[in-house]
Amino acid sequence: MIPKEVLKNIRRIQITTSRMVTDVFAGQYQSVFKGKGMEFEEVREYQPGDEIRSIDWNVTARMGSPYIKKFVEERELTVMLILDMSPSSFFGTRNQLKMQLAAEVCSVLALAAIKNNDKVGFIAFTEKIEKFIPARKGLRHVLRIISEALYFKPKGRKTDIAAVLEYLNKVTTRKTVTFVISDFYSPDFKKMLAVSNKRHDIVAITVTDPSELELADVGIVKLEDLESGQTFMVDTSDSGLRKKYSQDARQRQEERDKLFRSINVDAIDIRTDMPYSQSLYRFFRTRERRLRTR
């Protein structure tokens, strides 16, 4: 039995994100994620305006007048949501934890998918696979995914993106639209990401807290690496230390973005101190314009 407070929170997330899907992303999701291909529908007589290349010459010769083959897009997609549940995700200094933000983004994407009659699956991971929910349709199924994203308790202590992408390739037999939601603090995953992106349409969603980019001046503090458990004392009043911290953070960010560009992986950056709707909207608009120019 799910506690009433948990159900109430899931319902709140569903209502908030459903409204966003309807008001902001209506139509955009469908326009930027294409189906599996073109499916034959029928042969019919040629009409003015039809493309010459669509003419079925065998039927035309047999019937004595031009006929064309008509195809329709096979629209149904499979969307996979891959959620990083390593300890560094359970961190935040502003509006919410990175994990809470990631769970809301999962909700938006899952609801957008079922609104377009697509299947949705879910993988939670650390350095191992923590939870796998096969792709299905329906609101009840999506509510289960939202619940797992919000309340699942992982056991792992590290992050292995390469391993979860390898797992994705094993459990999916056809192309998927896959959103990897993580802070991407993981050992080398470029090779497996490149391999997986050739098979799937992968979008990287990077979740960041502002304190990971800038160190506040709050005197001497005790910090802990959430994934290794190592603790150390830091004098944040040292301006040189804060500058070095920011430089290192920016360098990691630039290297990550360069990696995504080098293997043609679309990326979305979301932060705990900014509305994520703006980042998602920007992504959909940019991708829509790019598809129009192809």
> Got a strand count?
10
* CATH architecture assignment name of the largest domain: 3-Layer(aba) Sandwich
CATH topology of the largest domain: Rossmann fold
Describe the sheet with the most strands. Answer: 6 strands, mixed
Q: How widely separated are the two ends?
A: 51 Å
- Mean pLDDT across residues: 87
Radius of gyration: 23 Å
> DSSP helix count?
9
Query: What sort of overall outline do the alpha carbons produce when their principal axes are compared?
Result: elongated
Which segments are poorly predicted (pLDDT under 50) over 5 or more consecutive residues? none
**Class derived from helix and strand content:** alpha/beta
Spatial strand sequence of the major β-sheet: 5-4-3-6-7-10
Please estimate the helix content.
40-55%
How many domains? The number is 2
Could you give me the name of the CATH homologous superfamily of the largest domain? Answer: von Willebrand factor, type A domain
In the CATH scheme, the class of the largest domain would be Alpha Beta
Please give a structural write-up.
It is built from 9 helices and 10 strands. By secondary structure, the protein is an alpha/beta fold. The model has no long low-confidence stretch (mean pLDDT 87). The relative contact order is 0.13. The chain has helices at residues 4-23, 28-32, 57-63, 98-115, 139-151, 161-171, 190-199, 239-262, 276-292; strands at 37-45, 67-74, 78-84, 119-125, 129-136, 177-182, 201-208, 220-224, 231-235, 266-271. The protein has 2 domains: 4-31 and 76-292, von Willebrand factor, type A domain (Rossmann fold, 3-Layer(aba) Sandwich), CATH 3.40.50; 36-74, no CATH class. The chain is elongated. The strands form 3 sheets. It has a 6-stranded mixed β-sheet with strand order 5-4-3-6-7-10, sandwiched between helices. The chain has a two-stranded antiparallel ribbon with strand order 1-2. Helix 1 (4-23) crosses helix 4, helix 1 (4-23) packs across helix 5 (139-151) and helix 6 packs parallel to helix 7.
